[in-house]
Amino acid sequence: MAVYVALLHSIVLGPGRRVVMSDLKTMAEGLGFRNVRTLVATGNLVFEAEEQPVASVEAQLEAGFAAVFGKHVDIIARGVETWLKLADGNPFVDGIGSEVIVRVMRQPLGSEILDTLAKYRRGERMAVVDGDLWIDFGLKASETKMLPALTTRRLGIGTMRNWNTVRGLAEMIRR
Fold first, then answer.
1. pLDDT tens digits for the chain (175 residues)?
2. Within this chain, do residues 32 and 96 fall inside the same structural domain, yes or no?
3. CA 114 from chain center: how many Å?
4. Total number of domains in the chain
5. Looking at 25, 50, 82, which one is the last position of a domain?
6. By the 8 A CB rule, do 24 and 43 touch?
7. Which domain of life does the protein's organism represent (predicted)?
8. Whether residue 65 is found in the same domain as residue 47
9. Residue 115 structural domain
10. With the CA atoms of 103, 107, 113 and 114 taken in that order, what torsion angle do they form, in degrees rounded to the nearest 10?
């Protein structure tokens, strides 16, 4: 058995409808995944499955999600070693946990994305580590001009998690 982390891009199903984590857990168990756990109410799963390519895990979760919830949502998965490497690779550990985010990417970004995003920067620190984009907003992320630039259209399929969540998932794995 292998351990995987899966991150939903969105838990919003429509106006006034959000995915309940117990329903998400039940959906993953219905796919045959074992020891399914969730972290906070933002679509974070840790589970065990037969060892397989991450793309296969993503495809199963996305198909299962669409069948159960009636909507496609991009889901990014990582194996345990890759997730722990991501957590250990935070270049801004001196930042505030809720204001440091990583955009976890399906396809790795190159460092040239930093030039593309430069025109939106207002003091944020940014780095690409192993293809994922780390940003330390310093102030409140909600007050930046950077967030609207971090779209799937511009960057590709990915989803953002703050440093507190990244650490929390790493702690779940290590238990």
1. 999 999 999 776 667 678 889 999 999 999 999 999 999 888 899 999 999 999 999 999 999 999 999 999 999 999 999 999 999 999 998 887 778 999 999 999 999 999 999 999 888 999 999 999 999 988 666 677 888 889 899 999 999 999 999 999 999 998 8
2. no
3. 19
4. 2
5. 82
6. yes
7. Bacteria
8. yes
9. 84-174
10. 40
Q: 83: burial class by Cβ within 10 Å (0-12, 13-18, 19+)?
A: buried
Residues 122 and 156 in one domain: yes
Would you give the DSSP letter of residue 20? -
Condensed to tens digits (0 to 9), the pLDDT of residues 85-104 reads 999 999 998 887 778 999 99
Rounded Cα gap, residues 109 and 31, in angstroms: 30
Same domain, 46 and 93: no
Looking at the fold, whether 128 and 68 belong to one and the same domain comes out as no
* Residue tagged 């756990």 (tokens): 37
Q: Are residues 92 and 169 in the same domain?
A: yes
pTM over 0.85: yes
